[in-house]
Structure prediction request, 414 residues.
Amino acid sequence: MPTKKASLAMPDTRGRFGDYGGRFVPETVNVALDELTQAFKLAKSDKEFKRRFANLLRDYVGRESPLYFAERFSAQVGAQVYLKREDLNHTGAHKINNCLGQALLAVRMGKKRIIAETGAGQHGLATATVCALFGLECVIYMGAKDVKRQAPNVRKIKFLGAKVIPVTSGAETLKDATNEAMRDWVTNIETTFYIIGSAVGPHPYPMIVREFQSVIGKEARRQMLKRLGKLPDYVVACVGGGSNAIGIMSAFLKDTALKDTSVKLIGVEAGGHGLASGKHSATLTKGKPGVLHGSYSYLLFDNEGQVILPHSISAGLDYPGVGPEHSFLHDAGRVQYRSVTDKQALKAFKTLSITEGIIPALESSHALAYLMTGEEFKSKSTKMLSAKSPVVLLCLSGRGDKDMDIVQSKLEIE
Ligand SMILES: *Cc1c(COP(=O)(O)O)cnc(C)c1O
Prediction:
């Protein structure tokens, strides 16, 4: 049964968020994860580490990212929509925040070799970027199919000096690349740091990723209060593994109806092409708990009980699981999880582009699309915007340059 009393702030000492998370790994990995937990704990209270991280977020990533009132888009949905502009970060998404933090940890721990897995290539790109920055050896595991599908990112990763290893086992996609990266880590654990790209994996990764992405929520909360003198009514973010969502939501988890500040939190998953039954392929809305990649969390299974990838137009959202903290927040009812289809995401992609001159990532388009479904703001069906309209803070997790080819091909089909 879900442990609703579990803290909304941190996992327990075993890395559990309620029933979820923890570690399901071989002993060699367990030792390395203990070492990482310790290094992270020390780094977190080290002024010099914090100063270095903060300076790089400012000078290298370009933080703080702006909070932008999207007025013409707001008129389309009947809510006052404020975009947290993670799309303006160096490398075009929120992923760099986490990669920078983990690479600094690697340097601190004396590790000279970095490995990572990537599906769409965005995490591979951010990892290769920080490895170039710190002069670290970098090996990126990628499913052979993804290597073909994501050629532009593969080219960039190689150009930055990293090595790309195509993985030909299984379905040749992200799940297989992750297995291969884990195998590499077990073999080279003394010298190698594994940079995980979302709020997933064995403890302490979900905690570490949340910490490095929490800058999004801290900034946005401060910006909101400064701009409006109040908190938003809603915080909305797309959920793949869940790192941009937990990054922005972490600053609002405690704003529940129990206090007088009540902020509704909504995570939007990829529902793929949306089946005729009305059911979607989204992990939290359709999956059930199980163990994958060293952690206990919600996963998607096929009829034979095999873990499957959700099918989505956005490669960055088709991770087979979701982070343990989201599983906990789902069961605790603190965050509502919804899903939208590829088609709805495409429509939102187009709408933000033509109303605001901002081309969003397809992943972020899922969050935007949820606002456009009218599910939340039904009573405002006239979509008249006023100062009384609900205030929405939405994490625009990335920019859409990388998605132009796929969007064009889909829109031509229609
Ligand atoms: C990778 C990615 C995501 C999904 O990852 P989370 O860990 O769920 O945030 C969302 N948006 C963009 C732009 C991405 O690159």
Notes: The pocket of pyridoxal-5'-phosphate is lined by residues 93, 95, 122, 198, 238-245, 316-317, 361, 363-364, 397-398 (CB under 6 Å). The longest strand covers residues 137-143. Confidence is low (pLDDT under 50) at residues 1-5, 275-280.
